[in-house]
Amino acid sequence: MNNTTDLTKGDPRKLILRFFFPLLMTNTLQQLYSFADTAIVGKGLGDDPLAAVGNMSSLCFLIIGFSMGLSNGFSILIAQNFGKKDIKALRRTVAHSIVLAVIITVLLTAFSMIFLKRILILMQTDPAILGDSLRYGHILFGGLAATIAYNMCAGVLRALGDSKTPLKAIVISSVMNITLNSLFIFVFRWGVSGAAAATIISQLFSGAFCFIKLSRLEVLHLTREDFAHDSTMYLRLLKNGIPMALMNSITAVGCMVVQYFVNGMGVAFTSAYSACSRYLNMFMQPAATAGAAMSSFTGQNYGAGRFDRIKRGLKVCLGISAVTYVVFGSAMVFMPRQLAGLILNGSTQIGYAAQFLPICGVMIFSVDMLFVIRNGVQGMGFPFAPMLSGIAEMFLRIGAMYFLIDKYAFRATAVAEISAWVGALIINAAAFVVIFMREKNIIENKKLSKHALSTV
Question: Which of 22, 34, 304, 454 fits a 20 to 30 Å CA distance from 118?
Fold first, then answer.
């Protein structure tokens, strides 16, 4: 099993940290080049084009998040089969995941291209930025195949314990993205279309890099027999993937409603919200990465029946999220204007962002913990509780905006975020405890039964 990592053996802390840091660098680079894109668009084109790109973020999360949820669901089954050392089932799972990924890519591309304008209008997108939002979105969604291919390949690699190959892919992609972005915007003057094109081209290369790596793994030498139609396998994959995809999309709907309220307040608010969202996404990355490590670690050890290791892994990942809260929460609380000024130009927009960041900075620990615990639930193969938490997030976001926006204006967006984080955390923490104890007891009872039979 060349260049794969068995997470069911060895010191959990060392294994998780060895897996975590390359993955953290991967996710950080993704956020940094996303941040660089935002800064290039904001400083190079102005606050209105930045608002147009930022206006697309929740819609991108709806479409791309759906595909990521599916691929993450598929990769958990792959990790569990790898933990069981069932190579035949592993290969069939990967093969059927590929087939489903192709079908989903076609459907999502068609949906997003057809309904993009209608959705943007429903979101109260200001006419001043509608054209740029459409140009950006048509290119980004037209190249959805490249995005899904990377996410799928990187997910399989992480399920097999390889977090270094996605890092190498993102290093190449980041350099390419920033270079092309600067070239397309400052030299070719392509506007927001250049930013979207740079993203798709760089993701195409990162996806190809990961695919080449996968094709060289002996454990994944797929044959025609692996692709033979198996309705049971498709159902298992969809049963695990769809709830995770819906969780992301339902959460995105809540974010789109928040965007609707923000857009109704004016372009200055849209620009400020775009900048704040970028910082939230970037500062959440260490905890989100700890969550991804928890998912792979839990998946393999659940497949091996090692619940003691899952518990130890949870402590390690929560420790990581605690450290990142102290660092990034402090930055949001004590340096909001400095952070906002790195992206935004107008003093009005910077002032709005400086209202949002400290409020979320105080409570960002709740979403940091949420990433870890929710991924632990998903890693055990129980995606429905996280899906329910996604529904709760949506209603909490919408409710907070509806009831608070008239009184607190832009600050209501920060309260909406915090409400969603805390509600989802409570649901997933309860689910983790219940599922962990139940599954642990089932496995222990099976071992006792086997032992009793062997002594008869």
Answer: 34
Note whether residue 3 is domain-resident.
Answer: no
Cβ–Cβ < 8 Å for 55, 274: yes
Residues 6+ apart with CB under 8 A from 107: none
Average pLDDT in the chain? 90
What's the average model confidence in pLDDT over 274-286?
88
pTM of the model: 0.78
Does the residue 4 lie in any domain?
A: no
The answer to whether residue 1 sits within a structural domain is no
The amino acid that residue 380 corresponds to is M
What lies within 8 Å, CB to CB, of 88 at 6+ separation is none
Phi, psi dihedral angles at 191 (to 5 degrees): 65, -145
- Within 10 Å of residue 18's Cβ, how many Cβ atoms? 18
Report residue 156's pLDDT band, with 50, 70 and 90 as the boundaries: very high
Structural element, H or E, at residue 5:
none
Per DSSP, the three-state class of 87 is: helix
DSSP 1: -
pLDDT, greater one: 31 or 318: 318
pLDDT of 84 over the 70 cut: yes
Angle at Cα 375 formed by Cα 370 and Cα 376, nearest 5°?
Answer: 100
Residue 44: per-residue pLDDT: 74
Helix axes 12-45, 307-324, angle to 10 degrees: 40
**Could you give the CA distance from residue 70 to residue 226 in angstroms, rounded to a whole number?**
20
Cα–Cα distance list, 63 to 23, 167, 174, 254 (Å):
23, 24, 22, 14
Q: Is residue 6 part of a domain?
A: no
Distances (CA, A) of 217 to 88, 97, 213, 287: 14, 17, 7, 29
Tell me how far apart the terminal alpha carbons of the chain are, to the nearest angstrom.
Answer: 38
Q: Give me the pLDDT at residue 454, please.
A: 62
- Quote the tokens at residue 384: 């429905």
According to DSSP, residue 224 is labeled G
31 closest CA partner among 253, 289, 257, 367: 289
Which structural domain range is residue 160 located in?
12-455
* Helix intervals (H) in 123-216: 127-142, 144-159, 164-182, 192-215
What is d(CA 160, CA 83) in angstroms, rounded to the nearest whole number? 9
Question: Other C-beta atoms within 10 Å of 345: how many?
Answer: 14
For the chain, the domain total comes to 1
Residues in CB range of 403: below 8 A, 6 or more apart: none
